[in-house]
Design brief:
The chain has 348 residues and is of the alpha+beta class. It has a single domain, classed as 3-Layer(aba) Sandwich (Beta-lactamase), CATH 3.40.710. The protein has 10 helices and 11 strands. It is globular. The relative contact order is 0.14.
């Protein structure tokens, strides 16, 4: 009987064990399927999230690109004084791009063309013409060697120069580079080596302006980098006439190019005025200038149809516009004004 009870208990245990095993076999695939589904859902969700949000490196690159685009946007153009004063709105028969223009007969002082001639504006490197007049009339030795120092480096506009600190050139070479190539460090060095120093030199510039009757003119330094150097076309015509009296200024200002020995190097410099290389022009003296406050400027003494003329162009808009304006004036004078004046003289 005990044996029968044991056998019954064993059969019951085996039955129970088999049922549990069967249930486990059924549960495992379901669990696995459930886990797989969750994993797939998680992967899908992750994939969607990744699709919506790019990797950190890409986001960083996009931010960097966006930042570069923002930084690359050009700054608004700075208005010249003439533009700010509304002078470019003045009409003229030649449709000049210069807001100020004046053409006079050098011998008779007859005004042949004028546009805002009394407007007082910054004159940029036209300043160097007065610098040359003061240096020349001081009769300082042109062969004296001058040295470019840190004081001659432009800290106002940050303009560049090939005349490095320590460069030694003669006063004559400095004068040539200041007039022909508008070399700022050369012009500043000329003022700094004047007897009494820079203050005395600027004082001499202003005294000469008053002596010439340039009552609307003021100088604060010898290069023209400062917008504080201001004048009018009428005053500058007087300056051109005075500077023309000095043969050395005529020669140096109209030089086309020059080679200058700087230490062991030989540097090539060219005129800033392309018209001196144009055979259609007979230029006896010239000077160009530019800073943003002044626009493009140019003064010249030139001979047209046998007459000596002084031409002043200030605050021209556009890199080559002052050259274009000068050409318009020359053609207009050749075709209309000078032939009529010549005929009138012959009739007398």
């Amino acid at each position: 009987m005990r044996t029968s009870m044991r056998l019954a208990w064993i059969r019951h245990w085996l039955l129970l064990t088999g049922t549990v095993a069967l249930l486990m076999q059924i549960a495992l695939p379901v669990s696995a399927a459930s886990s797989s589904g969750k994993a797939q859902a998680s992967a899908s969700s992750s994939s969607k999230s990744s699709a919506k949000r790019p990797p950190a490196s890409t986001r960083s690159a996009r931010r960097s690109s966006s930042s570069r685009r923002t930084m690359a946007q050009p700054a608004p153009a700075r208005l010249s004084f003439g533009q700010a004063y509304g002078l470019h709105g003045t009409d003229d028969p030649l449709d000049l791009k210069s807001s100020v223009a004046l053409v006079i007969d050098q011998d008779t002082q007859q005004v042949l063309f004028s546009k805002n001639p009394d407007a007082v504006l910054p004159i940029a490197s036209i300043t160097k013409l007065m610098t040359a007049v003061v240096v020349t009339e001081a009769e300082l030795p042109l062969d004296e060697m001058l040295t470019i120092s840190q004081d001659d480096v432009d800290t106002e506009k940050g303009s560049r120069s090939r005349l490095t600190v320590g460069t030694r050139l003669s006063r004559g070479e400095m004068l040539l580079l200041a007039l022909m190539s508008s070399e700022n460090r050369a012009a500043h060095a000329l003022g700094r080596h004047y007897p009494g120093g820079m203050d005395a030199f600027v004082g001499a510039m202003n005294a000469k302006a008053q002596l010439l009757g340039m009552h609307d003119t003021r100088y604060v330094e010898p290069t023209g980098l400062s917008s504080g150097n201001q004048s009018s076309a009428v005053d500058l015509a007087r300056l051109v006439g005075a500077a023309y009296d000095h043969p050395i200024i005529r020669e140096l200002s109209t030089s086309r190019e020059a080679q200058v020995d700087v230490g062991r190097r030989q540097l090539q410099f060219r005129s800033t005025n392309g018209l001196v290389r144009n055979p259609a022009w007979d230029i006896g003296l010239q000077k160009t200038g530019y800073i943003s406050e002044a626009g493009r400027c140019m003064v010249m003494q030139a001979q047209l149809a046998g007459r000596k003329l002084i031409m002043v162009l200030l605050d021209s808009a556009g890199k080559y516009s002052r050259i274009g304006d000068a050409e318009r004036i020359r053609k207009w004078l050749d075709q209309a004004v000078l032939p009529v004046a010549s005929a009138a003289v012959q009739m007398r």
